[in-house]
From TrEMBL:
Domain AMP-dependent synthetase/ligase: 199-324
Protein's UniProt name: AMP-binding protein
Gene3D superfamilies: N-terminal domain of ligase-like
Highest rank taxon of the organism: Bacteria
Organism placement in taxonomy: Bacteria, Pseudomonadati, Pseudomonadota, Alphaproteobacteria, Sphingomonadales
Organism the protein comes from: Sphingomonas alpina
InterPro entries, per database record: AMP-dep_synth/lig_dom (IPR000873), ANL_N_sf (IPR042099), CapK_Type1_Caps_Biosynth (IPR053158)
PANTHER family: CAPSULAR POLYSACCHARIDE BIOSYNTHESIS PROTEIN
Length: 449
């Protein structure tokens, strides 16, 4: 298979957009961009995206906790008709409560069984997510699905009084990572008049000079910076002078302490987004609302117990979702692995006490630190359905593998040692329930402050 051409990566690219791509990639302080990517959006798809954004920004999340909305019944009928995994179960149940829950492990086992029969394969895209809990996962998607994320980010930003203005010749968003291995690229956003987008890695290994990190960020002057708590903690240590209009924290739980430090430093709202690659942006934290306010009008959320039974309002359990905007991966009663309770605040469903995936770092043998994502990359070649890593207060680590993968224990220990260095490593099988917290540590400094 040949690599796509720039015409395939950026079908609507103008001369101004091409010049911006060149400026971002060829700046004297630019990082080593290790990958190439693009929006792949066709001109005829842009009006539909504009309509989707207008509807998303204006539509209420109209359902109430414990009362499935009217669109659930036709969704069930359609999903049971078009999606192989659900069709194999027989007729669609009349009630959502009667649908068995599914989990990340189900998707990881056979993602193709969850893709509708009539999704055109010629535009289908996929990407791999390591996550911080559960199995590595391949996600089925489409260029327009990826582009729809922006509508929910705009909805979240509008809640805090921010309306995006970046356009032609300007950089709209910089996505930050901080790990030894990171997918990095530059692109443009056609639905924002080709404003620039850059995914960069703050790890020093991706830069000719570590001091270039601050110089490059200041030169791009992005309107919004998105990242996770680990990359934002690194950003706080850089002598940048840029003033973004907002910071978006995604993928991991953001502590109040780190959010307060970021807001003081950059004098802008810092949004804590609850988002998953399988579902997209689910909710945004709002202290005034007392929790995470839901963002998707067509996503129904339940709180369920271990048996998959819906719990009453206010009772804590696992977040379980139905619906969404990814037509390549319709989800019905998908267990997220995160826990919360549901409340109704000001007429809006709110997730309270959300306990999600926490950013964990591990102390290396030489006293440094590595990101949990570096561990995921190191163990990627190991044929295990899932794994868990725990670091004790002494610095020793215990790696747990699926029982079927224990034959690869020596290779897994060697792969882990390649990133964590000279620490005591024990490898043992996962026992009991297959829902494990993937990364844990007893070290006080393992969490971003």
């Amino acid at each position: 298979m040949t690599d796509p051409t720039d015409a395939e990566r950026y079908p609507t690219l103008s001369d101004a957009g091409r010049a911006l791509l060149r400026r971002m990639s060829e700046h004297p302080a630019a990082p080593v961009y290790r990958n190439r990517s693009g929006n792949r959006l066709l001109a005829e798809e842009l009006p539909g995206l504009a309509n989707f954004e207008r509807e998303t920004l204006s539509a209420p999340v109209g359902w109430r906790p414990g009362a499935p909305p009217d669109w659930i019944a036709p969704l069930l009928a359609d999903t049971y008709r078009r999606v192989p995994h659900f069709r194999a179960r027989g007729a669609a149940p009349a009630r959502l409560d009667d649908v068995p829950t599914i989990s990340r492990a189900d998707l990881a086992h056979d993602i193709a069984a969850f893709v509708p029969d009539d999704v055109p394969l010629d535009r289908l895209i996929n990407f791999r997510t390591t996550g911080t809990t559960g199995n590595p996962l391949l996600i089925a998607s489409h260029p327009t699905v990826a582009a729809r994320y922006l509508a929910f980010h705009k909805r979240a930003l509008a809640r805090f009084g921010v309306t995006l203005r970046a356009g032609a010749g300007e950089v709209g968003v910089v996505l930050l990572g901080d790990q030894r291995q990171c997918f990095t690229y530059v692109s443009v956003t056609p639905t924002m008049d080709e404003a620039g987008l850059a995914k960069i890695n703050l790890h020093p290994g991706d830069w000719r000079d570590p001091a270039d990190r601050a110089r490059y960020l200041d030169a791009l002057a992005p309107e919004v910076i998105a990242g996770d708590p680990i990359s934002f903690a690194t950003l706080l240590d850089l002598p940048v002078t840029l003033r973004p209009r907002a910071l978006l924290s995604v993928a991991m739980m953001l502590t109040d302490g780190l959010r307060d430090r970021l807001e003081r430093r950059f004098d802008c709202p810092v949004l804590d987004l609850y988002s998953m690659n399988e579902v997209g942006p689910i909710a945004v934290a709002d202290r005034a609302a007392g929790g995470h306010v839901l963002l998707q009008p067509n996503l129904y959320v339940e709180i369920v117990d271990a048996a998959g039974r819906a719990l009453p309002v206010g009772e804590r359990g696992e977040v379980c979702v139905t619906g969404g905007f990814n037509f390549c991966l319709p989800l019905v009663r998908y267990r997220t692995g995160d826990t919360a309770a549901l409340a109704l605040t000001g007429g809006e469903p709110v997730l309270t006490g959300l306990s999600g995936r926490r950013p964990i770092r591990f102390r290396t043998g030489d006293g440094g630190w590595i990101n949990n994502i570096d561990v995921s990359h190191a163990l990627k070649p190991i044929a295990t359905a899932q794994f868990g890593l725990h670091q004790s207060a002494s610095g020793a680590v215990t790696l747990r593998l699926s029982p079927h993968a224990m034959a690869d224990a020596p290779a897994a220990a060697a792969a882990l040692r390649s990133v964590i260095g000279d620490v005591a490593i024990t490898v043992e099988p996962i026992a009991g329930d297959d829902k494990i917290l993937q990364y844990t540590s007893d070290l006080a400094d393992s969490l971003s402050a």
